Amino acid sequence: MDDFDEGLEATPFPEVVQALCTPGRDENSTKTAAVASALVEVIQEKLGADSFEKISPPALFASALNALSATITNDQDVGSSPQLSLLEILQQVIPYVSSSNPNLYLHQFTNTSRALRGVIASIPSSHQVEDQSKISSGWNALLRSCIRTAATALNGILVLENAKSMEKEILKCFQYTILNNFDDSRAKVRRQAHSSTIELLHLSQNMEEGLVQLIPSHLTEYAHHILLEFQNKKKNKKLSEFEKKDRVVRLMHLLSFLEHSLAIMSQKGRLTLGKDLMQLFAFALGVDANDDVQRSTMVANGSLAALLQIFDNSNREFDSADKDSSEEDAFCAQQWATLIQANAKLVQFTSTGNEGTGECRSLYAKAIIAISLRLLSDDISEQQKPVMKALIPKLLPLSFTTVINCVGDEDISESAVQGICAELGRLIRSDGFKKMLQEEASNATYGKCIEACIGSLQKIQQYRYRSNWDACLPCVATLVVSVIQGMIPSTGADEATMTKMQARVKPMVTALVQLYSDVDDKSSKQVIEGAIGNIVEGVGAEIFMGLVDLCDGSKQSNVVKGAISTERAWILNVIKSSLSMDSNPYRPRLAFFQSHVLGLARKCDMASANDHLTAVEASIQRSRVVDLWCLFPSFCLHPLDIEVTFPALAQTLVRAMSDKRYPELLTIICTGLTALAKDVQERSENDMNSNEGVQAELRILSDCSTKILPSLFRLVESLHGLDVSKKASKDEDMDVEDEEETKKNLSQEAQRVMTVTDAIAAYASIAPEEFLKSLFKKVVQRLLAASQSDGDETEKMCTLLGLAQALVKSQCLNDDSVSLLYRSIKPLIKSDEQGSRVQKRAYKVFAEICQHYTSFVTAPERLSEIIDLMIGSTIVLQVSARHMRLKCIKFVAEGFDSNNKAQMDIIPNIVGEVLLSLKDSNAKTRESAYQVLLSLAQVRNDMTTYLQIIVGALGAQTPHMRSAAVMALSRLVFEYARTDFTVQNLLPNLLQTVILLFDENSREVIKSVIGFVRVSVAALNKDQLEPLLPELVGGMMKYNRGKGRFRAKIKIIIKKLVRYYGYEKITPLVPANDTRLLNHMRKLAERTARRRAANIQDGATAVGEFDDLMDSDEDDSDDGRTFMTGVTGFTKMTMTSRKSGKTAMSSKSIAKSVRSMTKSMASMKSSASTGPRIDTRGEKGGEILDMLDPKMSKNVRFNEEQDDDGFSDDDEAMEFDDSGKLVVGGDDRIHFSNNDDDAEEERGGKRQRISKFESAKANREEAHNKRNKKNQQQKKTQQLGAAYKSKKAGGDVKRKDQKFEPYAFVPLDGKKYTKKARGQTVEQMSTVVRGKGGFKRKRR
User: Fold this and answer.
1) Residue 1273 and residue 736: Cα distance in Å, rounded?
2) Where is the sequence biased in composition, kind Basic and acidic residues (predicted)?
3) 3-class SS at 1330?
4) pLDDT per residue over 1254-1298, tens digit each?
5) What is the average per-residue pLDDT within 4-9?
6) Model's pTM, two decimal places?
7) How far is residue 1200's CA from residue 1170's CA, in Å, rounded to a whole number?
8) 60 burial type by CB count under 10 A (0-12 exposed, 13-18 middle, 19+ buried)
């Protein structure tokens, strides 16, 4: 009773009655409310009550039951009958009756059961009517409601303790109301019967005693009878085809129910039905050739799906009432052997390739694996554990073999193979399988079992499985990883265990590597690479490289013995791409990297220096050296032997970083060193027990930092020197491709410098304090000396500032050092004498100080000085340093205290510069300015005062500043209007103030104001915005104030206002000459509504980012299609919209479609005589032609047709220029070709359409050819005197704009005689200087 009454405590019965009497929106709810109100009124009249409080559950229950019994007739109309409403009332009331007055409910249950059975008897059965469409949906709803009510009634009677005498009536009610509908042809009715039965089974799970077990027992007998009856009837050859089909359908419905309910039945019932299902499965496999194989496959699949609920106990929602599971475990073990024995028969049965055979194999494999996982787990009963320990070593290898046999055919579907291999991988990764590996030392049979499993799985590598390797080979990789992880703990193992492990898994890995050499198709090689990558990811590079010899190969192609084999070089790439810097299954050893990996690298380096190798072969060997070094960062993740190996390895690392033959090693080694230092430092900080090992590792790294840091400092200087040499070698006449390559190299050098400085910062934080202090002083001294030098010390100063930035980033400097550095860079910020690069570097250093030493910056004695520095250095600020300067301001502002008045007074002094930076041409600078603006708002913590500061800039003298102030307001409104009530309340006044700027003559101010209006309209609610509509619309629609240029954005705002207030309210506010725009928008909206109703998508995207909201010309209502031509599919506004992010991509796609359409239009000019034209005479009064409308075909005319409606070719023909624009003019502007032969093509005289893709492709090729031709003309040697060459005749001619006579002199230019340009100059001179024989001098 407690479980049944648990949900009733929350809702008092008067509230339930009130809910029943309250009509809802649907028709059924209204009828139920009417019936409930009538019943309640009758009860209230009898009791003399006027409220729901006096209505008791028994009274309403008796009234509803009597009314239901009185409505049972065979000729009733389901639409007018109140039965459905009465059933809904009973369903709500019965739980309260059975809990509050159980004796009454016990005596009334017979009447309740009789009434429910009577209602079902009056409903037409699906078996009685051949045409199911004639059964009204109202009958189906009534039947489902009756089933639900019966389940509620049974639920109420089963929990009663004194209902023993009602067993017969309970079973009768269950049989006639629920169980008889199990095989109903109506899916909803059938599912309702199944779900109601499952609810009753859940009740039996919660209660062990009483009548609750009556339903499961009866259900078991019912299912047992149907399963046996099917097998017996199936043997009867006299059954008709209809009877056979009916039996199969009935059985499949039962199997579908058992698939969802077996897990919650009692153990006794599960075992009974489990035996029947196994017999049914064997019966299905034994089908004759004359029988229906398709039906037998369905039966086999259904029986296996139901059996899985018994075999797999890992996902059961409820604990079994039977605590002892020994019988079920023994049953599973018995069926394990039975299923394995049926493997050959199942493979033969499913080899036909019919529908469902793949699913049959998949379910079969899942059943075997489910039993294996169950018996391998610790959840089996203690009584069965000894038996299972003896059984598992015998049957587990057979299970592997059986499952693998299921994927050996090519006809099996890919999804089935994927499912089978996924289940096999689940078995291999299970804790039970790994436990066997761990316990094989104490149980010798486990070792033999594992060997047998490995042998079975190796069959997958055979060529018969080649078509399914993409799913099967990952299982091999999973087995290798599981065996290694099961035998080798994370802390490591002794040499004997490592040897045993290698002997066990090495054949599998070697076979995979050999398989890669044997196959020749790319897909198989990719699958093998993926399997090898999974192994590397699971066990790490050290263990894997101990299993595979990279130097081994059948062909000895290496000049130096011991270098990487050409046949196995691909493995190195797989290892490099599979290693992760985030995690490592085993702690690596630096000693292995030093001895094994670096040993291979030295051999490859020696091979690259061999004289017998070609340049390509030597380059390949050098690339392998770099690939081997790429493994170093993974060995730096929590290594085991830092104390022993790193001091010696550090010297090798320093030498390798300085090796000019391999510049790539610098980034790799610095990345590894940074990871190593951060890993040790984090473990030292997180170590609560002060582990001596971690502290010792930290001391070793600290000692080694004295050697590493000076080397890194020198490397930074050398990198900057390389940067200078590259810039010095850059020639002014360099080609575009060479210039791009140079920029790429410079970017790579900058990345290398950043990597080195990160390493410096990491090791500076753990270096000895005195050493770091002396190193820092040397850097500052050299910086001061360089800044006071008379020569050009730009590069040296940039290098020193980069080193200082790295030391500041390490956060290991004291206040004295930071103060010294601040005083050193202060002159560089205040002056522009040293150049833009030095000033930018100085700002970077200062930004690091502001970020990491906030207390130093915000100290009262220094803050005013820093603010004066920021304000006073504005005059000498270089353009390239603006971005870093704003970062400095941001970090300084973030350290402010909102309660400190002195600090808050500083904000107005820096807002002006921030606002002007919003208009900067550099995107990074603009974004930094926005971030500073938002940071100041957070620090100020008073949006009213902060907005007043910004609004004050609206009164600036320059339009530039006023535009910047409006942009700042737009961003603040965008960020805070929806979350800050202060901004929400101030927004109407802000909008009213900004609208006044519509009278400005500045275009940039108008653009900013329109953006602010767009943001504000989206943020304001209707009530706040409505009073401002006249001023808002009037300001936007003013002529000669930018309306024509920004009409797309204005249209979007108007459309939003129309959505808020409707056309009736907005139209009077628009000038009379602009009403055509609103008419056009209204028609577009109506068309869009029609298209949406017809499920036609426009493909528009909403604008959600701030930049898109400010700059985008697109809207999500009509995709910016105002003033559309109807032919090209684009507008000028759409084509020229400036957007970022996603909108930029859409602009590119639109531009591409424009170019392709333009080309198509150009190709149509010669075939205009036979091409179609459009009758546009109906386009007037704002009406436009929808080219996608099916009726549009009536307006298309061809020249071959004899028009009877008087539509002339010369009336409304449409012509487009080269850019795709519509040409509107008189008859003299329209020309048609008379060449009919050229106009017709191969397709029956019709013009062949050129797709957008083909036209875009041709356009791109044409542009590419033009660009190449232009480059060739630029590269072509310009002849001397070519400017005087006559175009009409031979000889020379002097033009009006030419100052000198022809051949008067040859201009001399020092650049022409450099070593690089000397050959071109000689070729130029050969046009005027002749040789001895009278010929022009040839180039030497």
Assistant:
1) 14
2) 1251-1265
3) strand
4) 676 677 777 777 767 666 655 554 566 666 776 666 667 777 667
5) 46
6) 0.69
7) 7
8) buried
